[in-house]
Specification:
276 residues; 13% strand; two-stranded antiparallel ribbon; alpha/beta; eight-stranded parallel β-sheet; TIM Barrel
């Protein structure tokens, strides 16, 4: 089982979950059920992944009580551009697709300029209605947080950002933690045009610790006190959970951190997604 992390609203989240980006159809349904069978209790999806129905079915198929599963979804940028009522409809639709009365965590998927305030205020309303337990953001840099906090009545509990050895995000993480916001890393092995697992340092550390290179990366992330959501791939479930049972030395933690290149994936560099 994964370590439990405390959020600034007093609720908890498993430190390691599974991400469902790219999963579709029956594969999504089966993989989510298998993840829960393997011991994961943290499932991450998003409206733009177009798999909420299958994720909801996978949770239902598992027979794990709903209150034992931490479920996250995210509001799609195009919906935010359509205004507050569209955001409300999208949240209601996500609840229906996921076959649940509430979400454990609802995130703004991208910082869409001019749309964040209205969206955040709708999200706060859903917290007051007890349809959403916690709210947060994704892909926010410090200036996005500064702007949000000028009007937010409910502080975000999490900022989900890209974190891997080529994108260590030390300053951004420190700023979030200073504000009492937990940081959740997506893309721990790089994605798109980035692939960190072949780096010789990581391969040498894998040999040293008798682990896989992906385990070294995940351990580097969780040992920094961060939450992470590697992809939902059944052949790696046991391997991923095992990272909670060993540690890297301080020197090796620093060595992995030294690989940083501030290299974002092409997805984040897309101005449509990250316009300011």
């Amino acid at each position: 089982m994964s370590k439990i992390m405390k959020l600034n609203n007093g609720l908890s989240i498993p430190q390691m979950g599974v991400g469902t980006w790219t999963l579709r159809g029956e594969t999504a349904r089966q993989n989510v059920r298998l993840a829960l069978d393997a011991g994961f209790r943290h499932i991450d999806t998003a409206q733009m992944y177009e798999n909420e129905v299958e994720v909801g079915q996978g949770i239902a198929d598992s027979n794990i009580p709903r209150n034992e599963v931490f479920l996250t979804t995210k509001i799609v940028p195009n919906t935010m551009r359509q205004g507050a009522e569209a955001v409300r409809r999208s949240i209601d639709e996500s609840l229906a697709r996921l076959q649940t009365d509430y979400l454990d965590l609802l995130l703004i998927h991208w910082p869409v300029k001019g749309c964040i305030k209205d969206t955040w205020q709708v999200m706060e309303d859903y917290v007051r209605q007890e349809k959403v337990r916690s709210i947060g953001v994704s892909n926010f840099n410090p200036h996005h947080l500064d702007d949000l906090l000028t009007y937010a009545e409910i502080r975000p509990v999490i900022n989900q950002i890209e974190i891997h050895p080529y994108m260590s995000q030390e300053d951004n993480i420190a700023y979030n933690h200073q504000l009492g916001i937990q940081v959740e890393g997506w893309g721990p092995f790089g994605q798109g045009d980035i692939d960190v697992l072949g780096h010789p340092l990581l391969q040498s550390l894998a040999t040293k610790y008798e682990k896989t290179t992906s385990q070294i990366v995940l351990r580097w992330i969780v040992q920094r006190g961060l939450i992470t959501i590697p992809r939902c791939r059944p052949r790696h479930f046991a391997e991923n959970l095992e990272v909670m049972h060993f540690s890297l030395s301080d020197a090796d933690m620093a060595a992995v951190g030294s690989l940083n290149r501030n290299m974002r994936s092409s997805e984040v560099n897309d101005p449509e997604n990250f316009p300011w």
